[in-house]
Specification:
The complex is a heterodimer of chains A (335) and B (258).
Chain A (H helix, E strand, L loop, with lengths): L7 E5 H15 L3 E5 L15 H5 L4 E3 L4 H13 L3 E5 L6 H12 L2 H4 L9 E6 L14 H5 L5 E3 L4 H13 L4 E6 L6 E5 L11 E4 L4 E5 L2 H14 L5 E5 L2 E3 L3 H11 L2 E8 L4 H10 L12 E5 L8 H6 L4 H13 L3
Parallel strand pairs in A: 2-3, 2-4, 4-5, 5-7, 6-7, 10-11, 10-13, 13-14
Antiparallel strand pairs in A: 1-8, 6-12, 9-11
Chain B lengths: L1 H7 L8 H7 L2 H26 L14 H8 L7 E3 L5 H6 L4 H8 L33 H15 L5 E6 L6 H12 L4 E7 L2 E2 L2 E2 H4 L16 E5 L3 H16 L5 E6 L1
Parallel strand pairs in B: 1-2, 2-3, 3-7, 6-7
Antiparallel strand pairs in B: 4-5
Helix pairs in contact in B: 3-4, 4-10, 7-8
The chains are: A alpha/beta (335), B alpha/beta (258).
């Protein structure tokens, strides 16, 4: 998907996103950024950084603390020909803007008979681990993934963060990006220049024979770490980075489960009624069902708000040790 | 409140003529009168079909709000844009929609404006600047502000009108949108068609201020009250608001009491 052979360097996840936004704004006058404190302050997580100095306050627009109105303004701008990228300061604040996201952005193209499209990108810093407690730590991607008309992505690496954001900006439909806050400082190889990573395609991060782990966002890294430890015990784990919540990559997941005969879903969001349920059902409804040698396992967040105390906070979301233990039990049948 | 409504219902003959004659030619005025009649007859036809069970779902008529729709749109070109409401048939017709495609939509046909996907509450005609009616009270207001942001950024000279009812003025979206339109001086005109009730609940019971236009003061924009049944009064207020928007001076809130 790269336009030309380009040099690859190490960038942080946040820098990769910033670079994607800068490239898009350089290439297309219609692209602009909106959000709370994204201008001189540089964004709550310094993702927009100094972009306001390069592109000016007209294209890196600070908004009032008005998530509902701001999201609606972005939708209206998108419908009339611009390409807004709207940053929520925390993904939790999606709750304030659900009307515009769910009833307007997601539905306009279909409901108006194709008369308009809504090429808006919304970015959501998500997840726990920062001690920000219950209202600033949630993983709400399944909420939005439930709504036809939205595309929902969760890039797990700096490379994908840049490539998927550039794909999102090109997309004619609303794309919601959930960025785990603990990934912002993670470094990884990122090609220079423009490239896109397709929305709707999962990536096999590690090949294995004994078990398929389908993981999202930061859980991809925890699962890879767990897979490394399990390899020492002779358990060979395949790790799939789902990357896109909607539309979900059915083929990659099913092909993997047909090969390994076991499935575990690992995600940070609350376990019930979430992405793990969807992946499990997708597999159970498919030809992979006949290949299953063991019940499907879901490893997700606890059924509580995210607590403040750091030990409790860790205990509410799957950790590497939890993944190792659950995978071992699943493969050895010691359940 | 009662006294003001009584006054608003007095016949409007005479006092609206000077502005209209000064601003619009005979063809435009004939066109406006024709559109007001068309809206009334269209709505009567829609109601008849609905009551006979020919139309599925929900139907909100704009009988009695013809003058506000037509008076506002009289000063707009096809390039200028509107967002509309669940009670939006009149706005669509005033903005130049083809009534046969509207009716086709009511009947769920692919020849309708939304190819049968939207129905009465979602008529849009982008070629005439109608960005769409909306089933969510207040939902179109921030979208109109976004369209006005596009107009300002691209320098198109377009003005955007956001129609909404009195009920919408108690939605958060109304307040957030008016504030942003004002701080960014966007070319948008907010038009509240105050028919006195949000379903069963009167404005007096639902709204803390006596006039919805009073809320404009909170967002540092002009708030204008007009008799929504007087096309001349509406058109005169719209003309000033549209001119102000085109000059880059920002939004206006017009309250049409119908």
């Amino acid at each position: 998907m790269m336009d030309a052979a380009t040099a690859v360097r190490e960038l942080s996840y946040a820098q990769a996103i910033q670079e994607a936004m800068a490239l898009a704004m350089e290439a297309d006058e219609r692209v602009f950024l909106m959000g709370e404190d994204i201008g001189v302050y540089g964004g709550a997580f310094q993702v927009t950084g100094d972009l306001v100095e390069r592109f000016g306050p007209e294209r890196v627009m600070d908004t009032p603390i008005s998530e509902l109105g701001g999201a609606g303004v972005a939708v209206g701008a998108a419908v009339t020909g611009l390409r807004p990228i709207f940053e929520f300061q925390f993904s939790d604040f999606a709750a304030l803007a659900m009307e515009q996201i769910v009833n307007q952005a997601a539905k306009m193209r279909y409901m108006l008979g194709g008369a308009v499209s809504v090429p808006v990108v919304m970015r959501f810093p998500a997840g726990s681990g920062t001690g920000a407690a219950a209202q600033h730590s949630q993983s709400l991607e399944a909420w939005l993934g439930h709504v036809p008309g939205l595309k929902v992505i969760q890039p797990a690496t700096p490379h994908d963060a840049k490539g998927m954001l550039l794909a999102a900006i090109e997309d004619p439909d609303p794309v919601m990006i959930f960025e785990h806050k603990l990934l912002y400082k993670m470094k990884g190889a990122v090609p220079e220049g423009r490239y896109t990573v397709p929305i709707g395609k999962a990536e096999v991060r590690r090949q294995g024979r004994d078990l398929t782990i389908v993981a999202t966002s930061i859980m991809v890294h925890k699962s890879l770490e767990a897979a490394q430890m399990l390899a020492a015990e002779g358990i060979d784990v395949e790790v799939i980075d789902l990357r896109t919540v909607r539309p979900m990559d059915r083929e990659t997941v099913i092909a993997s489960v047909c090969k390994t005969s076991r499935l575990m879903c690992v995600y940070e969001a609350v376990k019930t009624l979430g992405i793990g349920a969807e992946v499990s059902a997708m597999v159970a409804e498919s030809e992979a069902f006949d290949f299953l040698d063991a019940p499907i396992v879901r490893l997700g967040g606890a059924e509580t708000p995210i607590p403040y105390n750091p030990d409790l906070e860790k205990a509410t979301v799957p950790q590497v040790g939890d993944i190792v233990a659950a995978a071992r039990a699943l493969v050895t049948g010691a359940r | 409140m009662a006294a003001r409504q009584k006054q608003a219902r007095q016949p409007a003959e005479g006092r609206n003529l000077p502005f209209l004659y000064a601003r619009f030619d005979a063809d435009a005025l004939r066109g406006a009168l024709r559109k007001m009649h068309l809206i009334r007859q269209f709505e009567e036809g829609a109601e008849d079909s609905y009551m006979r069970g020919l139309i599925h779902g929900t139907m909100h008529l704009s009988i009695g709000q013809e003058a506000s729709a037509v008076g506002i749109c009289l000063g707009l070109s096809d390039e200028d844009q509107i967002t509309s409401t669940h009670r939006g048939h009149g706005h669509s017709i005033a903005k130049g929609a083809d009534v046969s495609r509207m009716f086709a939509e009511f009947f769920g046909k692919t020849t309708g404006y939304c190819r049968g996907r939207g129905g009465s509450m979602h008529i849009a005609d982008v070629s005439k600047g109608n960005l769409g009616a909306n089933g969510i009270v207040g939902g179109g207001i921030p979208i109109a502000v976004g369209a006005a942001l596009t107009a300002k950024k691209l320098g198109t000279g377009k003005v955007v009108v956001s129609f909404f009812g009195d009920g919408a003025n108690n939605e958060g979206a109304f307040h957030e949108a008016l504030n942003m339109a004002s701080i960014w001086k966007l070319p948008v005109v907010f038009v509240c068609e105050n028919n006195g009730y949000g379903m069963s609940t009167s404005v007096a019971r639902a709204t803390a201020v006596a006039n919805i236009a009073d809320r404009a003061a909170a967002y540092a924009m002009p708030g204008v009250i007009v008799d929504g049944n007087s096309v001349g009064e509406v058109a005169e207020a719209a003309d000033a608001a549209i001119a102000r928007a085109r000059r880059g001076e920002g939004p206006t809130l017009i309250e049409c009491k119908t």
